[in-house]
């Protein structure tokens, strides 16, 4: 394909220094096509939020060391600074968070917050920006949007606040939306509403979305493609169907079993033993080997190769080299 | 675990058919005070007249959205907050008249969601677990604690002298489970006990809970918002909405066919897990109403697509539905005499 990918990570490495060193991302290669919805799946500490933050350069500059390249629409994100970085944040790429109550400013009304962003990025008047804000609240299907423009975040319910945050994030029509567990804090019946809304808006605006979650069910519900992260790298990626119906990496298989979808009551769960590694040193072997029931000496002596299974399906596991 | 310490809370007094817990018409309203004089300005109807039983040896799952009163119910059962009204009967003995709170707590213990907040950061693991037995006068509290640590999969040699912050979330939750078991309780209330854990660790802890239940003959009340987990672990399921029970019954029956429209919506809101057959329509619009001012009649009528006049006027009673004596729901649709136009019709004999 000659299309420039919307996002391209090449051998990204992120290391946090401080009292102890953490190798958060270890050689990540990942790309996203324009208009694609990618589900980034992983447990806490797997590096999924750090991946998102590198795209907005939100990592603490003094404590983090980055290697490799990150490109959005062909632009090197690492080289941005000053005004170019400000334009990038919120204009090109925008982000929604798990806790809308913390992400929104409590002392401004929802309308003012959206309008401020629009004025800043589009250089329009306050009145015109308010019109955009009203339009956005309508698009995220907030009931009686005229009234909601003038309300403060604390006056809204959790689901409404999340809709308001989505409206804010999309108000400048970014090409890329980053969603960091946006439905984890919501109730089940509200979560599904927000997931379907994001799916619709993604089609309507034609934007690329990276949706970070720890919940496989949520990833399946929204994603075209799913990438599974473990200990700062991808272990498996492919279309949602490829990953869910034909999981190849032992970790992905374990996660699917732990979802309990279709688990039989009373039957022992096929739990992955142990817990994720601490990442104090950069991995020089398969990070999952210590928890893997099929691990061999080969797994512990070198990094696993990335094997193409079929179509877009890729797996980082030495077991797959024999099968291809 | 020491069987010699068998005392009040642990012995079976009521026989196998006496439910371990009977909760009758539990009510808890929290006042909201504001203004200069700190006057009561509103009331949160957290738990509003709920009744249920927990049989010996079963696992009762309680599900519902935030604000529905599931955690308040758990806290009422163990006396962490005071009842406004209603009664709790533990193995045939009424709390307050026949038995004291301290006696109840020997038989009923609880594990909370936040594994870190529920441990004292200044106590080592072994001291935390041994605390209960020490208070209740056990001869060798730290011996009990070390034994339990081994039982929940934490090597006492390695972990006994550590502090909570030196453990991972899964390990800390194992400590909380061990601590809950330290007085050999018969009922353990698990309030979102696995919700904060990563999926792979959650599966390990669920396996542990199943093993412990079998080995020690425990009874569980398992509170969760994750329907997959509740289905896996529960014998019976109780569904709550805004402080009331809307449906209760055997897990298999409820998962096969939901009688109450709210239960049905809750199940339909679960992610499909099938990329070729994703959810197209959200089952419910809007958020749950505020429990400060709950809707009249059936509390679900504001979000229910079957709602009619009767639903906003008359509160439906929790009554037996279908063939099973044990499956109950509170919905006018299930009552042939309710006057709802779509209600089930009397089956012609």
UniProtKB/TrEMBL annotation, chain B:
<dbReference type="InterPro" id="IPR050319">
    <property type="entry name" value="ABC_transp_ATP-bind"/>
</dbReference>
<protein>
    <recommendedName>
        <fullName>Glutathione import ATP-binding protein GsiA</fullName>
        <ecNumber>7.4.2.10</ecNumber>
    </recommendedName>
</protein>
<keyword id="KW-0997">Cell inner membrane</keyword>
<keyword id="KW-0813">Transport</keyword>
<dbReference type="Pfam" id="PF08352">
    <property type="entry name" value="oligo_HPY"/>
</dbReference>
<comment type="function">
    <text>Part of the ABC transporter complex GsiABCD involved in glutathione import. Responsible for energy coupling to the transport system.</text>
</comment>
<keyword id="KW-1003">Cell membrane</keyword>
<keyword id="KW-0378">Hydrolase</keyword>
<dbReference type="InterPro" id="IPR003593">
    <property type="entry name" value="AAA+_ATPase"/>
</dbReference>
<keyword id="KW-1278">Translocase</keyword>
<dbReference type="GO" id="GO:0005524">
    <property type="term" value="F:ATP binding"/>
</dbReference>
<dbReference type="InterPro" id="IPR027417">
    <property type="entry name" value="P-loop_NTPase"/>
</dbReference>
<comment type="subunit">
    <text>The complex is composed of two ATP-binding proteins (GsiA), two transmembrane proteins (GsiC and GsiD) and a solute-binding protein (GsiB).</text>
</comment>
<keyword id="KW-0547">Nucleotide-binding</keyword>
<keyword id="KW-0472">Membrane</keyword>
<comment type="similarity">
    <text>Belongs to the ABC transporter superfamily. Glutathione importer (TC 3.A.1.5.11) family.</text>
</comment>
<dbReference type="InterPro" id="IPR013563">
    <property type="entry name" value="Oligopep_ABC_C"/>
</dbReference>
<dbReference type="Pfam" id="PF00005">
    <property type="entry name" value="ABC_tran"/>
</dbReference>
<feature type="region of interest" description="Disordered">
    <location>
        <begin position="272"/>
        <end position="293"/>
    </location>
</feature>
<keyword id="KW-0067">ATP-binding</keyword>
<feature type="domain" description="ABC transporter">
    <location>
        <begin position="32"/>
        <end position="267"/>
    </location>
</feature>
<dbReference type="InterPro" id="IPR003439">
    <property type="entry name" value="ABC_transporter-like_ATP-bd"/>
</dbReference>
<keyword id="KW-0677">Repeat</keyword>
<dbReference type="InterPro" id="IPR017871">
    <property type="entry name" value="ABC_transporter-like_CS"/>
</dbReference>
